[in-house]
Design goal:
Layout: E1 9-17, H1 24-35, E2 49-56, E3 59-65, H2 73-77, H3 82-88, E4 93-99, H4 109-121, E5 127-132, H5 142-150, E6 157-160, H6 169-179, E7 182-183, H7 194-213, E8 221-231, E9 236-245, H8 251-255, H9 260-277, E10 280-289, H10 297-302
Parallel strand pairs: 1-3, 1-4, 4-5, 5-6, 9-10
Antiparallel strand pairs: 1-7, 2-3, 8-9
Helix pairs in contact: 7-9
This protein binds guanosine-5'-triphosphate (GTP).
Subcellular location: Cytoplasm; Cell membrane
Binding site for GTP: 18-25, 65-69, 132-135
Function: An essential GTPase that binds both GDP and GTP, with rapid nucleotide exchange. Plays a role in 16S rRNA processing and 30S ribosomal subunit biogenesis and possibly also in cell cycle regulation and energy metabolism.
Length: 305
């Protein structure tokens, strides 16, 4: 915890969403490449996945991926599921990226509303549309596309960008800074702290429980890191963690026959945590029942809520 600054900055969680191939990863690389002090690793979680942290002298933008929010045609026509809605809560802004070069030349408000409208109806925070790949677009098409999008929803801004060349990305940051609250950095400016490493390790374990058990388990499991010890001499991190479940009936599902499932969870988690920490890890997992933990304020506090 050595480099947490107490200076206030503009900081916030910003969801980066959009259809596949829109250029989200490319944008991320460009933003991080230019501005980065750190990149947090990418643990996949069922809630939000931190994609990267963009640091400036007086701001910190935490870009997150909210699963379920990726506008595929199928999803747009359906109700967004609970997870998607949940994962949007607490977002300070949403970036919705489209491949502008792939939009049909005669894209009308009606057509784009049909495709994206239901999606925006669910978002109540400031939303910025990023019209990506303008390097491929005849510049005369840009204004009409902005015009069409402006009729779909009261967006905070509609910004033409090229994730590849970086064109428009400064405007994006400037725009975000007008909506992000003044607060503290979520992450230290230059390095991951023990605190965030612990948090990410817990998220990785939770992810493995989710991936390897299914059923109702993911919603009733929580992971607490009991201890996290770095042994620099032996180049190893020893982690003790507890997986909390709500009901006794869930315990055998997570533990498995002869402990096989828990072992599988532990092995998969260890592999990812080793990658995260760039260190050998010895991981010890326990499973405990904590009835109604989702309603237990004290416990939620321990989890960092
Ligand atoms: N010309 C051009 N190509 C781009 C731009 N941004 C992304 N691309 C290309 O578009 C393709 C998709 O980009 P990605 O960044 O992988 O898109 P994504 O949204 O992360 O895709 P998923 O991972 O499928 O969600 C890649 O071939 C990129 O090189 C851009 O601004 N200009």
């Amino acid at each position: 915890m050595d480099s947490f600054s107490t200076d206030t900055v503009r900081s916030g969680m910003v969801a980066l969403v959009g259809p596949p191939n829109a250029g989200k990863s490319t944008l991320l690389n460009t933003l991080l490449g230019q501005k980065i002090s750190i990149v947090t690793p990418k643990p996949q979680t069922t809630r939000n996945r931190i994609l990267g942290v963009v640091n400036g002298a007086d701001y910190q933008i935490v870009l997150v991926d909210t699963p379920g929010l990726h506008a595929s045609t199928g999803l747009l026509n359906r109700e967004m599921d609970r997870v998607a809605r949940e994962s949007l809560k607490g977002m300070d802004a949403v970036l919705f990226m489209v491949d502008a070069a792939a939009l049909p030349t005669a894209a009308t408000t009606e057509r784009l509303s049909r495709e994206y409208g239901g999606y925006f109806a669910e978002i109540d925070g400031p939303t910025i549309v990023l019209l990506n790949k303008i390097d491929l677009l005849d510049h005369r098409r840009v204004l009409p596309i902005i015009e069409v999008f402006s009729h779909i929803h009261p967006f905070q801004a509609i910004i033409p960008v090229s994730a590849r060349t970086g064109d428009g990305t400064q405007r994006l940051i400037d725009e975000l800074l007008t909506v992000l609250p003044i607060g503290y950095r979520y992450f230290p400016e230059d390095s991951l702290t023990d605190a965030s490493e612990r948090f990410l390790a817990a998220e990785i374990i939770r992810e493995k429980v989710f991936l390897l058990t299914g059923q109702e388990i993911p919603y009733s499991s929580a992971v607490l890191i009991d201890s996290f010890e770095e042994d620099d001499v032996r180049g190893r991190v020893t982690i003790h963690a507890t997986i909390f479940l709500e009901r006794a009936s869930q315990k055998p599902i997570v533990i498995g026959k002869g402990g096989a499932k828990l072992k599988q969870i532990g092995m998969a988690a260890r592999k990812d945590i080793e990658e995260l920490l760039a260190s050998r890890v010895s991981l010890h997992l326990w499973v405990k029942i904590r009835k109604h933990w989702t309603r237990d304020g004290q416990f939620l506090k321990q989890l960092g809520f």
